[in-house]
Amino acid sequence: MPQLLGGAAYIWPYYVGGLLAYLLGSIPFGLLLTRLAGLGDIRKIGSGNIGATNVLRTGRKGLAALTLLLDFGKGVAAILLAGSLGPDMAIFAGFGVVLGHMFPVWLRFKGGKAVATAGGVLIALKWPVGVAALVAWIIIAATFRYSSAAALAACIVAPIYAYLRTENIGLTESVGLIALLVIIRHHANIARLIRGEESKIHLSSKSK
Questions:
Q1: Interatomic CA distance for residues 45 and 112, integer angstroms
Q2: Is the predicted pLDDT of residue 110 greater than 90, yes or no?
Q3: Domain segments of the chain as ranges
């Protein structure tokens, strides 16, 4: 990471890169796609989230898949574009795009949980770590049918695998911080899981 006590001329490009990534992350694809499809405001459906899981509750699987792809793509694009300027810039962009999805300026800072976007960041930042997190998500989602539990499992696996795979403390810390942000955004889901009130993933029909 860049030395934050260095000269302003050295630091400002990182903050600009992070800001641009934040603006990219702030694009609410789930909300835009459902409105274009004539489904109204996705924030008034199901959990009120703008992500793919809630879009799936409309019964439009294709729309949910496109939302997932675009949210994932935000994370990948931020890392690939910023990464051309160096690994530190990629880290700043990774945090920026995740925070943008969670707290989008266009929606008064009320966004989603950034699971797909964080996944895109991990895949582009260090693909084996991203794949490990994805495998954990798939296993838990297929076994228990809880998207939130799958996301939490992926967040636990990612930093552990990052350390075991690379022994790179800087990378592990960055992955861990991104995972922590996602976990914190799931605080309400964690409470519902404990109470046994969390909604399961439904693929066969529109969920209640």
A1: 14
A2: yes
A3: 8-195
